[in-house]
Description:
Alpha-Beta Plaits, 5-stranded mixed β-sheet, single chain, 15 strands, 4-stranded antiparallel β-sheet, alpha+beta, 9 helices
Amino acid sequence: MQVPPPFTRWRHIFQESFPSLDKYGSIYKDLHEHPELPCQESRTAAVVANHLESLGYQVQRDIGGHGVVGILNNGEGKAVLLRSELDALPIKEETGLPYASKVEQVDSDGYTKRVMHACGHDMHMASLLGAADLLSKVKDYWCGTLICLFQPNEERLLGAQAMIDDGLFDKIPLPDIVLGQHAVPTRAGTIGTRQDRVLGFLDSLSVRVYGKGTHSSTPELGIDTILMASCIVSRLQMIVAREIDFKEPCAITCGYFHGGTDASIIPDFADFKVDIRSYDKDIQLRAIKAVKRIIEGECQAANSPKSPRITTSTSCPPIDNDEEATAKFTRALRNFYGDEAPEKVI
């Protein structure tokens, strides 16, 4: 496939104005070395906001927490919003990189944790800042409004709503299209998208089960919450294996489990968190109902002194890509790259 003449011109314009990769590589390494947990992204937000201002963008800070928006008004035309995230994850980095994170922060549960950009948000930010730089340099060749949005608290799925609740769409032009991105572990140079549903439902449940504390030498005098919670977590896997049609994607995961203070003490409560994910609303509701049934049933079987505390900490709707916008995006990629088009546009 040959590149159409208008896109040949665009390729030349971009190549002539492309920003230094060394510059944005340094920004990436700095962000990677200094990650911040959700709702604590003050340094990260300052780096992003200051850089956008240096490029001539109109910047608004502290939207929905530490959210940042940079706006480049460039005459009449469409408003396009490009999105990245700010936050990192409570994970200890063991990459051995010279710019590896050594950051520790107190998380929302009160525990001090090591912090790492393990989900690519450092890459997303550096890429979006680079795109903002490039598009500002070539603004004589396009018209409209560019909105660069950096979302806080993405990992806990509350940042987008917080920005909206804080009046985001009163502070920026209403975008005609929103383009998000996310790195995936696949071949470099591969770009993927598809129409309709790309991400499914997610519900996160925070659970506390209750027992009776005692010394490990007298387990018969207590009700073991560690054992109770362990039985629940194991049993939850039977939902996908035996209650959900094998043709329906569904995943139930416990990624947080905490109980007790010492090996010799059986604690009187234990906490864990469960993620429930699927693509279909009916499957999602059925899985949530089954999870709660098993939690309550196992607590009753263990003779728990009171009912478990089950709260929904996060409930996230699916993401459906607009058919027309996806078709335009895919067509533009193929026209721009021609014979060098990404191998996989899905």
